[in-house]
Structures are given as structure tokens and as C-alpha cells.
Specification:
0% strand, 209 residues, mainly alpha, 12 helices
């Protein structure tokens, strides 16, 4: 946060500086008017950069502002339809809104096959199609175990399989997966927050509890 603040102070007209500082303040210190204002400023400074809409979409999604999140992700898709993660971002919003069938369709449009697998595991479970959800999860465990263990933890947490979710989070930690940096505000793993192991994991990650 200190380094991003320094970069922003040196050039507050750079959209990347505003976006990175806003994201860092949110992910380390929690949602705030300051973090949101910086993410909004990034869009004002660079309104055709899909990454700016991804960032604010993630912020809105984590804070439960799903209509705003959906709008942001749809704008990101408009700007870069084949962008990495844009369809899975919208798919996650739709899943959280209870629109599992629409979510599945979005996940399937994502160019990243690991995102497609995660989306299938989540959406099929939400749709009550347990056999297909189990098959998708098994496929994740076969193909993503050494690269995207955090995705597997998300799927398990969403299913309510708490012990297994923590086991895969620990594996992701051991593998030093970059996806863990957003773990504190990941809406797919809220089922873990009431477990005593959650705060212990945050401490291990050196994130504020």
C-alpha cells in the first residue's frame, strides 16, 4: 500500500496508479469510500480499459453490490469480449444473484479452461445437478491441483465442504498461488468465515483479520 501510495502521489493522473492503490487499500484494509473513489477515478481517467471495470466489478461483488458489479463486468465484456476472466467474473455475479443457468452460460464463454471447470462445478451444484457438479469437481482435482488449488477450495467452500476447502487452501498456500491475495474478500468462500481456522489462515497470509 505504501508503494502504491507513493506512485499515486507522483502521478495521480495515471489510471493504473489510481486503480492499483484503490485495490490495495481494499484488499488489505477492507472496503472504504477512499478505495472505491480511487477505483472510480481510474475509470474516469481511462474509460476504455477493461481492467478498470474488472477491478471495480470485483470490489462491488465482494461488498454485495451485485447490480453495480453486473454492470461493471458487462462493460468489461463489451470492451474486451475475450479478456481473461471477464466472463467468469460476470458468471460469479449471476451465481450470487441466484441465476445459476445464466451463470453457467457465462462461465462456458470464458477462454480460460480452468475458469470453465470452476464455473461448471459451481453452477451445476447450484442447479441441483449433483452428478455433473461432482464430475466437474473431479476434473478440477485432476487438472488444476498443482496450479489452481484455490479454485478447488472455492468450489468446496461453495458446496459447504469446509474441511476439504481448508485443506485445499493450505495446498494453495504451499504452492504460493497468486490467487490467494484476494482471499479475504472472496464471496465464494464466505462459508469458511465462521470457522476458527479462517482467522488462523489470514494470519498465515499476513492479512489483517
Amino acid at each position: 500500500v505504501a508503494e502504491y501510495q507513493k506512485a499515486y502521489d507522483l502521478d495521480p493522473t495515471d489510471a493504473g496508479n489510481a486503480r492499483m492503490l484503490g485495490g490495495a487499500l481494499w484488499l488489505v484494509h477492507d472496503a472504504s469510500d477512499t478505495a472505491l473513489a480511487l477505483l472510480q477515478k481510474a475509470i474516469e481517467l481511462d474509460p476504455v480499459n477493461f481492467i478498470c471495470y474488472e477491478s471495480i466489478g470485483e470490489y462491488y461483488m465482494s461488498t454485495g453490490r451485485l447490480p453495480e458489479a453486473e454492470s461493471a463486468w458487462r462493460k468489461a465484456i463489451d470492451l474486451f469480449p475475450t479478456g481473461p476472466g471477464v466472463h467468469s467474473g460476470l458468471g460469479t455475479v449471476l451465481l450470487l444473484r441466484g441465476e445459476a443457468a445464466a451463470a453457467l452460460a457465462e462461465f462456458q464463454r470464458d477462454p480460460d479452461e480452468s475458469n470453465q471447470r470452476l464455473g461448471a462445478a459451481l453452477a451445476y451444484f447450484a442447479l441441483g445437478r449433483r452428478a455433473e457438479a461432482d464430475a466437474a469437481l473431479a476434473e478440477m482435482e485432476r487438472l488444476d491441483a498443482t496450479t489452481y488449488a484455490v479454485n478447488i477450495a472455492e468450489a468446496l467452500a461453495y458446496r459447504g465442504e469446509i474441511d476439504q476447502a481448508f485443506a485445499w487452501l493450505d495446498r494453495a498456500y504451499q504452492q504460493r498461488e497468486s490467487g490467494l491475495y484476494q482471499i479475504k474478500f472472496d464471496p465464494l468462500i464466505k462459508s469458511l468465515h465462521g470457522d476458527r481456522r479462517w482467522k488462523a489462515f489470514l494470519r498465515k497470509m499476513k492479512l489483517p483479520e
